[in-house]
Input
Amino acid sequence: MEHTQTDEGSTDPDEDGSERVGGARLVGADRVLAVLKQLARHPEGVRLEELTRAMGSPKPTVHRALAALRRAGFAGQDGRGHYLLGDEFLRMAFAHHEARPEHVRVRPVLEALAARFGETAHYAVLDGREVVYRAKVDPPTGAVRLTSTVGGRNPAHATAVGKLLLAHELRTPEAVRRWIGNAPLERRTPRTRCEAEELHRELEVSRTRGYALDDQENEAGVTCLAVPVYAISLTAPSGAVSVSALAYRTPLRTLTKGIDDIRKLLGPLNGPHPR
Output
């Protein structure tokens, strides 16, 4: 059993009862959620002292948050005294993920695409300035695979899935400029399109031809082709499916030559597209 030490690394709460954790002002449930997110970064488990250091927060604060998570089944302790995500949290997360209608429907398509091209297939959705990967299937063979993960994020402007989805939302140069705002776009590689005008032109081309390309714009040596997925409506895509390839193994021209096969494999999820 671990004991809290109120004199080690503790901080006085603010007048409203909140505490400063890692420089951020966290109140109530925010503290618990911060600890939950940190636990997710330690799949092998983490000791209370390590968790406290990683968060830059007082030990009593972390211990109270862990106690709340344990009562809910969202955290647990192994035989070594390490804290880790609880079985109830994992059960809920996996059940929710598997129950997503688009995930269930798209998974067979990703498997077919990975087998067809021998490369990684993704399903992603747009979330503000980023894309979130909801599903991923690696190729059945091949020693070198991509490091992307389900739940992982990338800048929308630098990815094929992001540009494809942005093309349906940002239809004018003004809309692109408003979307960029005062926060400059990250230049992931020398090929990343970061200026409003060049990004608008790229989105316009993607919208016209019905698919988007990433020619080593997000990661050097990796190319990608994305097409929209119409899982909910025929007027707006719910997300995008992509084939991400190692450029030396599957050049971009190979992906573009296979666009008809990609659309055919999507079947009823294909929706409207230029012919």
Q: What stands out?
A: The CA atoms of residues 77 and 196 lie 50 Å apart.
